[in-house]
Every structure is written in C-alpha cells, then in structure tokens.
Amino acid sequence: MTQNRLRARKTPATTTRRAFLAGAATVALASMAGATVPPPAAPRIVVFGDSLTEGYGLDPEQALVAQLQGWLDTRDLPAVMVNQGLSGDTTFGGRVRIHWALRHGADAVIVELGGNDFLAGLALSDTEKNLDSIIIRAKRGNRPVLLVGIVPPQRAMQAAREDVIAMWARLAERHQVLLLPDLYGPLWQFPESEWPRFLQKDHTHLSPEGVRLVVESDLGPKTAELLARIAQAGSNP
C-alpha cells in the first residue's frame, strides 16, 4: 500500500478541529514561556433549521441563534454560531439545502427541522427519511450533530404525538447523535394559560421570552455538550 493511501483524508471540519486543538496547546505552552499569542479559532457551529432558527417575527438580537450565542459567551464557551434557518422550510427542502448550508464548512451542526412537516400533515415516514439524509450529510467527516426535536401540542398536528416522540428517539439512536427531544418542552411545564407569554401572536413561534426559556433550560446545555464532542472528535480523528 502506498504512502498516499495511508495518509488520512482530511475534511475542512476535521482540519479546523485539529487546528483548534493545536492552537490551544500552543497557547498553553506560550503562556508557560511568558509569550503572547492569539487564541485559537473558535469552533464553527451551523444551526440548520426553519423559521424558529431564522428568527421569524423577532429582532435579530432576540432570535434563537443570537440568544444561544449570548448564552455560550457568558459562560466562556467559545463558538461561532452560524444561522442557516429558512422560514417555511420542511425536511424535504432541508434535504436539498443541507449541502449548500455547509459549503463553508462546520465543526458541528444543530439540526432543527420537522415542525412545518407536522403542520402540513406530511407523512411521518417521509419526514424520518428526509431527516436520515440530512443527518448523514451533517455528520460527514466525523462532525458532531445535535438533533433538536419538535413535538407540538396534539391539536397542532395530524401525526400521533407518541409516534413523533418515538421518531426523534429512533433517529438519535440510529445515527448516534445528541438529542434534544422537544424544543418546546420547557413551555409545556407551565399551565396552558401561561403559554401566550412564551409564544408570538400566531401561537406557534417563540417570543423573546420563549426563546430565552428554551435556550437556558435545554438548548444551551445541549450545545455545551456538542462543544465537548467537537473537542473529543478532534482528539480522536
């Protein structure tokens, strides 16, 4: 076998992760020697989703990706969050769009799609197949993925709620990715009479307070886990 065949194939994301780890080691050594060097590049996380990701109806600084970036920043968790949300997108559209969304590379991907499928009454089996394809593409190059489930109230979708919950669990197990079972989960812990303060007037999209709730309760901590997986993937290429 030739030397070229033995040489590992590097993807842009793998190269970035290695550079981040190497940079961190350089900073540590330089600090011991009293030298000043720039910090390593922060991991790049693409947030791939629909209007919930894009920030429909919200000022940019109130939107989900911006609030998630702020949550990480206040906890000294370096990351560059890239908003690849598209209002109205379904998993079918996401299946086509994921290649374009990753054209500049990424160290990890957060996938948030499916809500529009449920609202449109699309077959759950088709949603699952599309998400299979999206996750496979997102994981390419040993890239960590966080799958964000959406489980609206039963009256807002035609599929059985239990079947939707089971689908998210199957996908996470099949592809060995992190799972946030239900982005709206923290809202359902409150009485229905309190839901309006967490939702916009359409009773579907999150309000600024709703975004803050889901980021602080679930999405922020899960993204911190994702960052840990980036470091782990970089040290075990």
Tell me what you see in this structure.
The model is unreliable at 1-16 and 25-31 (pLDDT under 50). The protein has a 5-stranded parallel β-sheet with strand order 2-1-3-4-5, with helices on both faces. It is globular and about 45 Å long. The protein is built from 10 helices and 5 strands. It has helices at residues 3-6, 12-33, 51-54, 64-74, 91-101, 115-120, 124-139, 161-175, 185-188, 208-235; strands at residues 44-49, 80-85, 108-112, 145-148, 178-180. 51% of the residues lie in helices and 10% in strands. By secondary structure, it is of the alpha/beta class. It has a single domain (42-235), classed as SGNH hydrolase (Rossmann fold). The longest helix is centred in the C-terminal third of the chain and has 28 residues, at 208-235.
Q: Radius of gyration, Cα only, in angstroms? A: 19 Å
The chain-level structural class is alpha/beta
Gap between N and C termini, in Å? 21 Å
| Oligomeric state of the chains present here | single chain
Helical content, roughly?
40-55%
The CATH topology is given as Rossmann fold
SSE string, helices as H and strands as E: HHEHHEHEHHEHEHH
Major sheet details: 5 strands, parallel
**What is the 3D shape?**
globular
Q: How many beta-strand runs?
A: 5
CATH C-level class is Alpha Beta
Mean pLDDT: 86
User: What share of residues are in beta strands?
Assistant: 5-15%
Low-confidence stretches: 1-16, 25-31
